[in-house]
Amino acid sequence: MKLEVVVLAAGKGTRMRSALPKVLHLVAGRPMLSHVLESAQKLSPDHIHVVCGHGAAQVREYFSHDPTINWIFQAEQMGTGHAVCQALPDISTQSTVLVLYGDIPLILPGTLQRLTDEARDGSLALLSASFDNPHGYGRVVRDS
To answer: Is 60 tagged catalytic?
Structure first.
């Protein structure tokens, strides 16, 4: 089955108090998005789609050397679900789809591989984490 990666990179990053698009802030000397793309590329996906919005021109310019990226513009940032929907027209219905956040740079390729392996049979797989203080994070409510 084909693997399509969608990287969400449209957020403004208001809490960072910077004019620089959030995904271009450096972690270990490289933009956050660079780390995410490197991890995604190690999975050998059929396509990598990057949904950009705020600072799209700057983000695209930085990564203009990479012709493998399919750039998708989200004109109005209306949340995660809306951002993913922007990529749907470019994704085969016969694909496993891995959705990543462009501002979570330290996720390991092995973790992503195990996640996609779980989803290959048509199931939904979701990677989440537990925090002692989840303030500022989205929530996944589960029974156990």
So the answer is: no
